[in-house]
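Appendix C: a fully annotated inverse folding record. The material below is reproduced so that readers can follow the format used throughout the book. The structure is listed first as C-alpha cells, followed by the designed sequence.
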C-alpha cells in the first residue's frame, strides 16, 4: 500500500521495485484504491461498512504480509493513509499481521515514527522498517531506483519479507 496518491509517485515505484525482487511464486499485489476509502466515521463502522473498506480489510486479511510505503506530509502521516488505518482499528484487521514499513520522503522521520506508533496501536507485527530520505534524487524520471544504498535496502526488505512468510 502506497501512502501517496500521486501519479508517478516515488513510493509507488518503490513498491514496484520490491515486486521485481520477489520470487515469481509470490502473489504480490499493489493496492491502488486508497483514494476510494471514505472519511472515517465511527457511526458507519458497523457490520456493513462502506464497500471500499470491506475490500481493503479482505485484501489485508488474505495477505501473508503487507508493505506500507509512504511519504511524509507536513511532518506527519498522509491523511488518506491515516484515514484508511483508522478504518482498520475496530475490525482488528492488522492484529499480528506482518507489516513492513517504508517511509520514502524528503526527510520522513516524523511520519516514520508516527506510523510505528499507529501500527503499534493496531497491534500489527512490524517486521521491518526502512527510512529513505531525499527520495526524489534516488529515483529517475522513468521511476527506476538509481541509488545503490536504496537498492541494497530494498533487496534486504525483499529477503526479510520472504523469510517472514516462509515461517
Ligand atoms: C503537501 C506536501 C507536504 C510535504 N511535507 C513534507 C514533510 O513534512 N516532510 C517530508 O519529508 N517531505 C514532505 N513533502 C515532500 C514529499 O516527501 C515528496 O513530495 C515525496 O516525493 C512524496 O512522495 P511521492 O513521490 O511518493 O508522491 C511534502 C510534499 C507535499 C506535496
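Designed amino acids, in order:
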Amino acid at each position: 500500500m502506497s501512502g501517496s496518491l500521486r501519479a508517478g509517485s516515488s513510493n509507488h515505484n518503490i513498491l514496484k521495485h520490491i515486486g521485481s525482487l520477489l520470487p515469481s511464486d509470490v502473489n504480490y499485489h499493489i493496492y491502488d484504491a486508497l483514494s476510494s476509502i471514505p472519511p472515517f466515521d465511527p457511526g458507519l463502522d458497523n457490520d456493513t461498512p462502506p464497500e471500499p473498506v470491506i475490500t481493503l480489510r479482505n485484501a489485508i486479511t488474505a495477505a501473508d504480509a503487507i508493505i506500507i510505503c509512504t511519504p511524509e506530509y507536513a511532518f506527519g502521516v498522509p491523511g488518506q493513509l491515516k484515514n484508511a488505518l483508522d478504518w482498520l482499528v475496530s475490525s482488528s484487521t492488522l492484529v499480528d499481521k506482518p507489516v513492513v514499513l517504508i517511509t520514502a520522503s524528503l526527510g520522513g522521520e516524523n511520519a516514520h515514527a508516527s506510523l510505528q506508533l499507529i501500527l503499534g496501536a493496531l497491534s500489527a507485527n512490524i517486521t521491518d522498517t526502512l527510512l529513505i530520505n531525499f527520495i526524489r534524487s534516488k529515483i529517475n524520471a522513468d521511476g527506476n531506483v538509481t541509488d545503490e544504498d536504496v537498492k541494497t535496502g530494498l533487496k534486504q526488505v525483499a529477503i526479510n519479507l520472504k523469510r517472514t512468510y516462509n515461517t
